[in-house]
TrEMBL record:
Keywords: Membrane, Transmembrane, Transmembrane helix. Residues 423-559 form the GGDEF domain. The chain crosses the membrane at residues 12-30, 171-192, 204-227, 233-252, 264-287, 299-317, 329-351, 357-374. Pfam families: GGDEF. InterPro entries: GGDEF_dom, Nucleotide_cyclase, Rev_trsase/Diguanyl_cyclase. It comes from Butyricicoccus faecihominis. It comes from the Bacteria. This is GGDEF domain-containing protein.
């Protein structure tokens, strides 16, 4: 029942997360009221060609020659636009923004140069000067590479409205990053919970590490970070390392899924990915080779890795078909399709929002894996709970609820091996007297009631000791025999035994006369007078000898 509850809770959480993400996304994309502080500067533009003015309305596609410089002018700004922020696309075209002869913006590479696709996601933001009303605004594109170029209308507004627009355009990536972080935390919590229950499902840890690396890549590679981040060069380096490393936990995931000879391929892939990271890092640090120049190699290795994992999973499925492997194959196939689509957008079409395609593919990939993992986790939890219950039942006395002799012997073995971690301990054997006579006179039921009463006295004594700061373990070791073990005893044994006698006496005062019980005990310390530890057998023998001597003195049942 518990494993069904766990699965239901996880699926409900995933559903609520999906609904929250969609609501957040729709709310961000849908504006109830237009932003009055934000406007599109799409009219009033013109070109000058041979002294002739040609009116232009943006967005527009204009003919251009490679390495040609193209300039658009605008004279419609007034003094009321002073201090506003102008945000324009075209960083990949080497855009320069001027007010008259004053340069307001020019993109310059930092210590980490970017390629065309990376620049295409950026906005060129420039603050208009106070005297903009009397000047001509110009946008100059200095790095044209195609026969035609598409030029979008720039935005004009306050810093707040422009920043809000940038966030809105990056909302999809932000939602994807948030979902990745939430799922990573969820996977990590499930891994820790299962580990605390003795179930080591390392694939949840693989998923958590993959999602954290992927979200780190999404953050440092995002346009928002590149525009507003402080140390964007360092962030770009972190982005490339995260991109190269994030495939390793997923390959390790496959290794933890398959078995036997199939694990060789994931091992080779992990070694290849690690070698790629080390080689590119060394080439960048020692020889100054740019990461963007080595990026095609990473793409090739990633594509080969996904294909290799699909091959391994297909082989494993042919050997032993299962729903688990079918979901894994579907997940890696989806990741491969979206990865190829992102590469086409990135490498062939030079489309700057390629990252959103890959992010969605990653999220779909993880959702498919999570479905199988949660099912497997619930089955593992059910099996573990059944095994644990069986283990406890084998070490518990059914009549009294106390640990039985098997549990007693296991605990003594833990003391012998040092697992308990105590330097000294006191072993007390307790015996219920007159059990045979009680069975003969009043029947076996009366004898069972006496054993249960004795067990309750023993349990009450243990609780009293624990309340006083004394750790005591109690066991029923035979029909009318009990044992107490006190590691690192701090209280006087005589005092504790008098306390136990008082508990028995209190029971006898409240029960019927024929239900009264008599109990004797014998004890022994693990360490002798010289502080040396005895053997377990010698320790038991001394406690047993004291018990028999007390029984003989009391004239009790010596069965």
């Amino acid at each position: 029942m518990k494993h069904k509850t766990l699965r239901c809770a996880a699926e409900t959480a995933a559903l609520l997360l999906t609904v929250a993400m969609l609501t957040f996304l729709i709310a961000g994309l849908h504006q109830h009221e237009p932003d009055r502080e934000l406007s599109t500067l799409d009219t009033g533009w013109y070109q000058l060609a041979d002294g002739v003015r040609h009116e232009v309305t943006l967005p527009v596609t204009l003919p251009a020659e490679p390495r040609q410089t193209l300039t658009l002018y605008n004279d419609t700004l007034t003094d009321s636009d002073a201090g506003k922020l102008l945000s324009a696309r075209g960083v990949e075209y080497g855009i320069e923004i001027r007010a008259g002869e004053t340069l307001l913006y020019r993109y310059e590479d930092n210590a980490f140069p970017k390629n065309t696709q990376m620049k295409g996601r950026l906005w060129a933001d420039a603050e208009l000067p106070d005297n903009i009303g009397g000047q001509t605004l110009s946008l100059t594109f200095t790095q044209l590479s195609d026969r035609t170029g598409r030029f979008d209308a720039p935005l004009l507004g306050s810093v707040r409205s422009i920043t809000g627009h940038h966030i809105q355009t990056s909302l999809f990536s932000l939602v994807m990053m948030l979902a990745m972080v939430i799922l990573a935390v969820l996977a990590l919590l499930i891994f820790c919970y299962m580990s605390s229950r003795g179930i080591h499902e390392r694939r949840f840890l693989d998923v958590a590490v993959f999602l954290l690396l992927c979200s780190l890549w999404c953050l440092t590679d995002s346009a928002l970070y590149q525009i507003y981040g402080r140390d964007t060069a360092t962030g770009s380096v972190v982005s490339f390392y995260a991109f190269m490393l994030m495939s390793i936990p997923m390959v390790h995931f496959v290794r933890n899924t398959v078995s036997g000879r199939q694990q060789l391929v994931p091992d080779i892939c992990i070694a290849l990915f690690c070698a790629n990271v080390l080689a590119q890092g060394a080439a960048y640090r020692l020889f100054g080779i740019r990461f963007i120049d080595m990026l095609p190699l990473t793409h090739l290795i990633l594509a080969a890795g996904v294909a290799a994992m699909l091959t391994v999973l297909l082989r494993s499925y042919r050997e032993q078909p299962s729903q688990q492997l079918r979901l894994h194959i579907a997940a890696f196939a989806a990741l491969g399709v979206f990865g190829v689509a992102a590469l086409v957008l990135y490498g062939l079409l030079h489309i700057y929002w390629y990252d959103a395609i890959f992010q969605f593919g990653v999220l779909l990939f993880i959702i498919l894996l999570f479905r199988e993992l949660l099912g497997q986790a619930t089955e593992d939890m059910r099996f573990h709970m059944e095994h644990r219950i069986s283990h406890l039942m084998q070490r518990e006395d059914r009549m009294t609820g106390l640990p039985n002799r098997r549990a007693f012997e296991e605990y003594m073995e833990r003391i012998r091996t040092g697992e308990v971690g105590c330097r000294d301990a006191v072993l007390t054997y307790i015996r219920l007297e007159g059990l045979n006579e009680r069975n003969d006179c009043f029947g076996l039921q009366a004898g069972d009631e006496a054993v249960i009463a004795a067990a309750r006295c023993v349990a009450d004594f243990c609780r009293a000791c624990e309340d006083g700061g004394e750790s005591v373990s109690c066991f029923r070791t035979g029909g009318n025999e009990f044992a107490l073990i006190r590691p690192e005893p701090s209280a006087n044994s005589g005092q504790l035994h008098r306390q136990f006698s008082a508990i028995v006496a209190r029971y006898n005062r409240t029960c019927a006369p024929r239900a009264r019980i008599t109990m004797t005990y014998g004890f022994s310390r693990l360490c002798d007078e010289d502080g040396k530890s005895r053997s377990i057998s010698a320790w038991k023998a001394e406690a047993d000898a004291y018990l028999k001597r007390n029984e003989t003195r009391l004239g009790g049942d010596t069965e």
